[in-house]
What does this fold into?
Amino acid sequence: MSQPSDNRLRFKLYKEMLRIRIVEETIAGYYGEQEMRCPVHLSIGQEAAEAGACAALEQRDYVLSGHRSHGHYLAKGGNLKAMMAEIYGKATGCAGGKGGSMHLVDLDAGFLGAAPIVGSTIPIAAGVAFAAQMRNEDRVVMVFLGDGATETGVFFESINFASLKNLPIVFLVENNFYSVYSPMNVRQKGDHRIVDIARAHGMEAHQADGNDLECVHQLCTQAVTKARGGGGPSLLELITYRWREHCGPGYDNDIGYRTEAEFLSWKERDPVAAYERKLIANGVGTQPEIDRIAKDLKLEVEEAVSFAKQSPWPDLDTLSTQVYAN
Ligand SMILES: Cc1ncc(C[n+]2csc(CCOP(=O)(O)OP(=O)(O)O)c2C)c(N)n1
Ligand SMILES: [Mg+2]
It folds into this structure.
């Protein structure tokens, strides 16, 4: 993005990234009230990967995700009020209040679903891409997964199938170094590289800085354009870092699986603050403009929380509906 005419896109990307940050911070702030009764996996620190990747997609494209999916849902255009209501377990939630944070869905936005069984949505995404290809639809599928999910059997089967069939799919790996509390070096031998797995299956793969919003967006745009043009699948590994505890609103560095120094070094590389500095330094935006965007977003998110809190509980007689496919 070198043209001044790209400034609108820069602001759009920034706003999407900041919106995810504010939503996640707001959830963390209200979580202690114990009105949200589902576990939440927040992606604070990883927002550039999420916003940059989804902005490369069209509305008709499909996204699938896993347990840490708020950012993917929002960046793909999912309804914020319906997401908040879902986390509060209300009837107005995107899954009728029965799924919670880890079962977000918004078919209108092309967010086909998220599920917390690690790896489970990867083969579904490959199947969706296969269907789009068979039906000759102009549709790309992007599936978000973590570094831990690349260690599931279905990941290997799915990338093999996607490569073999030249499917229109992007495997978007957010590598935040940990699977819960386990770093890569206790899970895999030697110099393990996720991109090499994809390449070994004949798939194009790239690793990039997941905290660099524009870099993520460019890389994803290339992969999506290639998939849309019949060029087949890609795997993109975005290096990033989760700030908060694996599951929940707090911090867990004291447990000892990672050091405070490591955490602080990644906080220094805050994708939101870095992009704000870049916007201002390049004369794209001013501090008052940025402050106004943040203020508007906070209002929008507070409204969503109020909507969720005021919404009714699901009726008891809906308990067993929409649980299984017809
Ligand atoms: C099949 C399965 N095994 C174990 C778990 C428990 N679990 C939940 S999240 C997670 C770690 C996933 O790590 P990663 O894919 O890197 O995603 P991250 O949490 O880092 O975003 C595990 C092991 C699970 N949900 N599903
Ligand atoms: Mg991880």
